[in-house]
Fold each of these.
Amino acid sequence: MATQNFDVCVIGAGPGGYVAAIRAAQLGKKTVIIEREYLGGVCLNVGCIPSKAMISAAHFLHRVQHDAPEMGIEIKSDVKVNMKKLVSWKQSVCDQMSGGVSQLLKGNQVTIIRGEAEFKTAQELVVKSKEGATSIVAKNFIIATGSRPIEIPGFKIDEKEVLSSTGALALDELPKTAVVIGGGYIGLEIGSYLSKLGTEVTVLEAGATLLNGVAERDCVQVVERKLKKGGVKIVFGAKAKSYKKTGSDYEVEYDLAGKLEKVKCAKLLLTVGRRPNSDQANLKGIGLQIDEKGFVKVNAQRRTSIAHIFAIGDVAGQPMLAHKASYEGVLVAEVIGGMNRAYDAKTVPAVVFTDPEIASAGMLESECRAKGYNDLKIGKFPFAANGRAVSLKETDGFVKIIADAKTNIVLGVHMVGPEVSNLISEAALAIEMGARVEDLALTIHPHPTLGEVVMEAAEATLGHAIHIIQKPLSRAEGSSVRATH
Ligand code: FAD
Ligand code: NAI
């Protein structure tokens, strides 16, 4: 077996791994990246990008069907969905993105090896592919092997009867009915677009709320209301137990407060979370420490218990988000490159691409209180009072700012509404820079834009938003008073 030597060996070409490889190469390191499936990882091929492509198409359809007539746009014939064409367009988006990663890696002189990597020792790994086996020796390794869906008893994902997000994103026939087990990120994003395309969706959620611990309760309520209005059924406290085939359909049995209930569907999706791939590639065999949740243990430089091996992205801890993986990729490459770096981000912003979108940066109100911030200023500004939102006919939602009442420093920003995925970065920057609410309120935001809602939410937090009527108390006492919710 031939042996190749490198400075840096990256395992996994997702948004963690490919970014780490490019940055390491930029820093002059002889770098190899090993990928067993697709360049771009879960995110570009079966995660972030395809799901957003499907969401965009479904939102477009919904706008044409529901908003266009009121705007004076008359559609004379039926608007139809060609699922085969839609899925093939979605695939072309993924292929374009994955091809871009390939070009970037090659353009940066990163060696790409296709195959399954497994550590032999802490200094050497073997890559197996159809063509044979290669041995790689490197000074540093970066484990970026990602995660996979969790299964529950009674539901084995086979992408035929029980679908994960991967199978759901590839459906080239629209099911009449679907049951989604798990009302988290994936269940709601996929459930929403299936519903908009015309599927009758039932969400079985074991907990008492959707997106528990991910978003502010009042943000989630806006989405929940709209889902229900669009015909999505949500059953809380429902623990899926088993399913059986009944003709061409499935019957799912679930426990609801100790009673067994049943629901029928044509397609069954299991979206109850993802687990790190730390049980693969012989990570345990070479002695890497893994924590009780299955994440590879890392320090602030993302160094594992073996000093020359690093771990990043989904395999190295929450939150399992692409931009966190990429941040860690750059960080680790720079540590290996001799730069003085450590993980010091104050916030990892998060977006749920429902309708409307939910976005957040910084702490939830409950987290602020748990950290001892008991005196908070909280201000909210609704999209319904924003000219751009009204002209877009997308007025559901608001921006909410939570600040420390003693210093006015921004602790958390939570948004639900149109394009909040594109508005949250301003909030993340504010939190990273330790900005005060006044910094957001006194920054001139162009008109008419959705961004003005962030500025007005800051003004509302200070008690003097212009385009909503705040309580007289706030007016009398000016900016020193706490705004009302
Ligand atoms: P991955 O992207 O999982 O990449 C790991 C790669 O390693 C894979 O390509 C795998 O094939 C390869 N690999 C694993 N083991 C080996 C081995 N032994 N040898 C060789 N190769 C190996 N996040 C967001 O921030 N925004 C979103 O909108 C979003 N949407 C999502 C939608 C869905 C449906 C899903 C499932 C996830 C979504 N995520 C989203 C999460 C996001 O995809 C992950 O956080 C991100 O992909 C993690 O990146 P990573 O580099 O750690 O791992
Ligand atoms: P999740 O953790 O977001 O949600 C899982 C949900 O399933 C929870 O609400 C949980 O209470 C529920 N659940 C668990 N067991 C259950 C059972 N037996 N029956 C019914 N409900 C049950 O997990 P999900 O949606 O699979 O997503 C995995 C991860 O992928 C996310 O945590 C996120 O990190 C990432 N992701 C990010 C996206 C984004 O950034 N927009 C989009 C999609 C995924």
Amino acid sequence: MSSSPGATAGPITRDTVAALYDGRLLDLVFRASQTHRAHRDPSEVQCAALLSVKTGGCPEDCAYCPQSAHYETGVESSTLMSVDAVRDAATAARDNGADRFCLGAAWRSVSDGPEFDQVLDMVRSVKALGLETCATLGMVEPHHAHRLRDAGLDYYNHNLDTGPDFYRDIVGTRTYEDRRRTLRTVREAGMKVCCGGILGMGEQPSDRIDLLFELASQDPQPESVPINTLVTVEGTPLANQDPVPWDDLVRMVAVARILMPKTWVRLSAGRLQLNESTQALCFLAGADSIFLGDQLLTTPNPEATADQALLTRLGLHRLNDSETSTA
Ligand code: SAM
Ligand code: DTB
Ligand code: SF4
């Protein structure tokens, strides 16, 4: 049970979450939309850009991930990018309308040394551009989290991916509790938490309910919740998974919004597989964040111009939009 401030009567319990998840779709969308409008500006969309600063060769065996060294996916391993190259990419992303920049590394965990020092320099240089900063680097110890915060990191992304039971079928090289520990460490260091999951890995509705309960029960709740749909990649064990039915995604977004009224709910990886009307329903159901830019970490994302056209058609605007911003 949690006393977290979801837009539900009373404390959030797993039963509350299950009752929401099992509700009638359009009732859910309506309620989620009301929640969204009561707590946030529903015309505003937060836009994050992603950059893989260290790609591939990861020792973990996450079954969805093209960057795991356990699978032959054709993703080439790279060394760590230079700070100058990261600054250039962040400048371009900002000029294309991103307001947050997320650095991703295919690491199991952060270790002390020159590579971590270089990532800290990347955070400082992205922050100096006036962008919000985010990083996803695997597990962290308290002193890593403190150094990241001191370098100017606003958000740390660390996904729980699914419910605890199904997690064991997806990742063998670390536990759900390892993920929870890093999330606590990040929070205790004073950073904002970005934490979400992936649909379409073969999970049951009960696993999605477990994940939503887990996320909404955090106190404080994550400031950012990315909802990814699996991007299937040849060579990974999940390469042949069926696409996620559109209504499952809308349902997930709506329940996340009702349970976490003040959180950025990101329609995250997998948008290239979604048609525009599904995305529109997700925005109506309370999604208010996307990844902007034609590349996620190793897989493609819609072109920024196509996304801008979609937002305009829906009457939505980017946070970093000079025509609508008052700054
Ligand atoms: N190595 C770090 C970690 O695992 O926390 C950071 C990078 S990892 C690629 C970040 C997140 O990307 C994962 O937690 C997962 O949720 C998401 N992800 C990875 N591959 C994906 C895929 N094929 N489809 C959708 N999401 C994916
Ligand atoms: C998140 O939830 N999704 C992003 C980001 N956080 C790091 C990653 C998506 C990766 C999709 C597969 C790829 O491009 O490699
Ligand atoms: Fe490594 Fe992260 Fe991919 Fe897992 S999700 S294989 S930890 S890069």
